[in-house]
Amino acid sequence: MHLHGTSRINGQGHLEIGGCDTVELAARYGTPLYIVDEALIRERMRQFIAAFRHTGLPFQVAYASKAFSTLAMCRVVAEEGLRLDVVSDGELYTALKAGFPPERIYFHGNNKTPEELEMALEAGVGLFVVDNFIELELLAGLAADKEMKAQILLRTTPGVEAHTHNYIQTGQEDSKFGFDYQSGQVMRAAAKAIAAESLELLGFHCHIGSQIFETDGFSLAIEKMAQLSRECRSSLGLQTRILNLGGGFGIRYSGEDRPLPVSAYVEAIAAGVRAGFGEAGVPEIWLEPGRSIVGEAGTTLYTVGTMKEVAGVRKYIAVDGGMNDNPRTALYQAAYEAMLANRAKEEMQETVSVAGKLCESGDMLIWDAVLPQVKTGDLLAVSCTGAYNYSMANNYNRVRRPAVVFVRDGESSLVVRRESLDDLIRNDCLPERVPTAEPAQG
User: Fold this and answer.
1) Is 122 annotated as contributing to ligand binding?
2) Is residue 214 domain-shared with residue 336, that is, in the same domain?
3) Residue 284 annotated as binding?
4) Measured between alpha carbons, how far is 8 from 15 in angstroms, rounded to an integer?
């Protein structure tokens, strides 16, 4: 397993993260356990800021909270000076409860409800990324009723298909997201937005996909967005003040992944914007990284339970979690690396398949993990689980969702408690009267 951030193997042969021994963390908090390297999160945020400052162009960096959203995470984002991208009333509520400045929040999503839009307007959210004509009219009406002027970007699909899994491509024409550029939808939307007195159109947004390892897709998207901006200026008199290019920057999950440095992505984007807009007309560039900030900072710790060997085929080891705390292998055929956290220096002796404990044949975390001879009770650490693991966790089989701890400088902080059995039934209701079943006839 590749070690990220502050991770290292200590003198006892244990995996250590943020100066905390993972064996001790397991004893204190139990397993499964999400461990988050706070120092690495902050470092990645600062890398984006530093890379943009080096370009000399105006910019804003927002954290895409869909990757991992908790009160503690929102506080870190605020302390590092980033904006925050939310996509639901739940993410917005979390941010507000964490004390995040609402003017630095912007609201995304392809099906914002009237209640969500009203909540965001009343909270003073700084910007809305409008996804479709129905939302455009709805937001204009709600803002007018409140005698407010909502600042917006229009999300457009520029017709760029990123080299990534089909499920996480978002910039192609056939997408549930955004106004289509090729058909002229986005031009019609821009005209409607400009005509609405309760809206202020600041620019455009696009997002071409996730887990991207090259810059060509971003460069092509910028060309198309620059062309769109020129057309809007010529026909509508609109000056594009903000160009939001989304996120999607890849991280290293396994040895086959070859992500670029943050600076390489940012430099390519800056070069594309300069070429497409010219120095005099460069808009403020916005990015919204999520996975590339938190992905490598997360490690999930499990306890090994039962094992099964299929002679001549494979050996299965089962852990006390699975697709309930990490559904990405089942959803995207995602690949992960692992190590025995309590025996990290021992010789690799076998290849095993790591199975979860849930009632699905597809509940597999890793198909081929090379490890020392595994024993029941060992601690298995799976790396790069900081993004889309906690945020996609579920209660299938009525399994409780894990706790989350932040680690930094030898100290651990519990930021999400492990669910209790009472939590599982907290929202359940029994009917006031259970009808008596009639005996079968015949």
Assistant:
1) no
2) no
3) no
4) 6
Which among 300, 362, 295, 297 has a CA at the least distance from the CA of 327?
A: 362
- The yes-or-no answer on residue 359 being catalytic is yes
DSSP-assigned letters across all residues of 43-65: HHHHHHHHHHHHHT--EEEEEEG
Evaluated on CA atoms 20, 23, 28, 32, the torsion sign reads positive
| 31 and 52 share one domain | no
Same domain, residue pair 275 and 401:
no
With vertex at residue 366, the alpha carbon angle to CA 363 and CA 369, rounded to the nearest 5 degrees, is 145
Catalytic member of 20, 206, 359, 429? 359
CA 318 to chain centre: 27
Instruction: Give me 433's structure tokens.
Output: 């009267």
Residue 321 known to bind ligand: no
Domain of 169 in residue numbering reads as: 38-294
What is the per-residue pLDDT across 165-200, written as a single tens digit (0 to 9) for each?
343 344 456 678 899 988 889 999 999 999 999 999
The pLDDT tens digits of the residues spanning 21-59 come to 999 999 999 999 999 999 999 999 999 999 999 999 999
User: Do 268 and 336 share a domain, yes or no?
Assistant: no
Distance of CA 231 to the CA centre of its chain: 33
State pLDDT tens for residues 247-273: 999 999 988 889 999 999 999 999 999
Q: CATH code at 411?
A: 2.40.37.10
Instruction: Give dist(CA 256, CA 276) in Å, integer.
Output: 33
Claim to verify: residue 330 and residue 230 sit in the same structural domain:
no
**pTM given for the model:** 0.93
Last-in-domain residue among 261, 294, 327: 294
